[in-house]
Amino acid sequence: MLDLFADTPPWQEPLAPGAVILRRRALANAELLLDQVNQVATRSPFRQMVTPGGYTMSVAMTNCGHVGWTTNQHGYLYASVDPLTGQRWPAMPAAFLALAQACAHEAGYADFQPDACLINRYSPGAKLSLHQDKDEKDQRAPIVSVSLGLPAVFQFGGLKRNDPLQRVLLEHGDVVVWGGESRMFYHGIQPLKEDDHPATGAFRFNLTFRHT
Ligand code: SIN
Ligand code: FE2
User: pLDDT digit string (tens) for 191-209?
Assistant: First the structure.
């Protein structure tokens, strides 16, 4: 029998032990998600954070949720107050939480309770060097990462910085979930190529959900 649903989004692609790509999983919600990103950014604007080493990051960032990821001269931390505004970060929109929890569940992680959503905005040339997500106290919870807008090459390695890298193109609506064995795997984003996306123009946005 003809399988009419074989290539119907979303579909899953295994990435590594404990890690999976949910292709186009966020596509149906993309417009709403981008609208909420704009609403968050009117209260806590995108800014290029400065690392403890004094380097200005090429990716512009903001946050929503109980706590937000930020930097200061001493290191990286989760803070309940946005250092730019002096106010609490905007609340996590219900649609964000529902999507993150559904994706975690589909990837095999039940009961994901994210309290932080980092929002990254990439413009052409912006990149995220290879790093581990290690600022969270709870390393049993997975990371749920939602890509919107322009495509970017995601690098996914192993526990050691010099482990071989997989390179996968993340497109509008793709979701990556990693946890368990791969929770501490090195990963990064290669410099964004200049292009024009119907939903986001010259930008790529990424939402990363974490239980800190
Ligand atoms: C991250 O590693 O925090 C974000 C990765 C991405 O932008 O896809
Ligand atoms: Fe990361």
Answer: 999 999 999 999 999 999 9
Number of domains in the chain: 1
User: Is this model's pTM higher than 0.70 or not?
Assistant: yes
Does the Cβ of 187 fall within 6 Å of ligand 1?
Answer: yes
**Radius of gyration, alpha carbons of the chain:** 16
Contact between 130 and 166 (Cβ < 8 Å) = no
Q: How many residues does the chain have?
A: 212
- The amino acid occupying position 43 is R
Ligand 1 binding pocket mutation candidate from 208, 209, 210, 212 (most atoms within 8 A of CB): 208
CATH number for the domain spanning 139: value is 2.60.120.590
pLDDT tens profile 151-167:
999 999 999 999 999 99
Residue 2 lies in a domain: no
Residue 132: inside a domain: yes
